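Researcher: Here's the sequence for the chain we discussed earlier.
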Amino acid sequence: MENRTVVSEFILLGIPNTKGHETLIFIGFLAFYLCTLLGNMLILSAILADSHLHTPMYFFLCNLSVVDLGFTSISIPKLLVSLCTKSRTISLGGCMSQVFFYHFLGSTECLLCTVMAFDRYVAICHPLRYMIIMNWRVCAILAAGTWISSFFHATILTSLTFTLPYCGPNVVDYYFCDIFPVAKLACADMYVIKTVTFTNTGVVPVICFFLILTSYVRIVYTILKMNSAEGRRKAASTCASHLTVVTLFFGPYALIYTQPQLSKGVVTAVQLLGDVVTPMLNPVRNKEVKGALRKLRVMHVDVLHLQK
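Model: Thanks. This is the structure I predict for it:
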């Protein structure tokens, strides 16, 4: 068979068992999406506007907000259009974009969680050397490293997926284009892409998770050795928001990949939890950011009064 792509578009089957509830689902997902955009844009504005938040922890939090803004925009706008217009087709280029950005931003968030765990480890276990170890040059290198390595990761996976020949059928049994729902439609052997995908999307996240776990074992040990109850409380609250991010990010995917007997409906629901709900929850957990947002609101009110 000639090794070329003859399929020019794909058909996304969407969320299973939604017949008759499209309007309700559309309203719900639109509300989640708008809240995610607003929340993450506010968190970026608050951190940029408040000089007290110009620290390594909030620098990485800004990166995480950018990832969340992009991550939720990969599949939800197309899903909303499908629910509204009943049009389920997606172009070959659109499908390639979904695969690329899903793995690009997913890998970036995974690596950012690991870097943020290291940042919390240094802050709590080596507080006197924190600003020496986590200087701005190191922070910039770590952040750039997460984005660049994720770019190459996504480029490799997307290239392997779409160099396979597609000669029909073109129906993707999912609500967005991902590697395996698309690649199983190919008219070729999938051994190479299965092997590479397992290495990239399986081994790397497991290594990241164990690095995060190691950091928090050291953090817990250090907190338990503290004599001050107030110090223990502050250290624990500093880590709470990051632990929430880690749980919400790794939890759904761990459930999907460790429980292969789950039904398609459950898998889709868990996937949507990670893609839609988690990015919306990320901005609402940090006390200092909430304080900065209150300051922004007061400043906005003062400006309105002056204009009047």
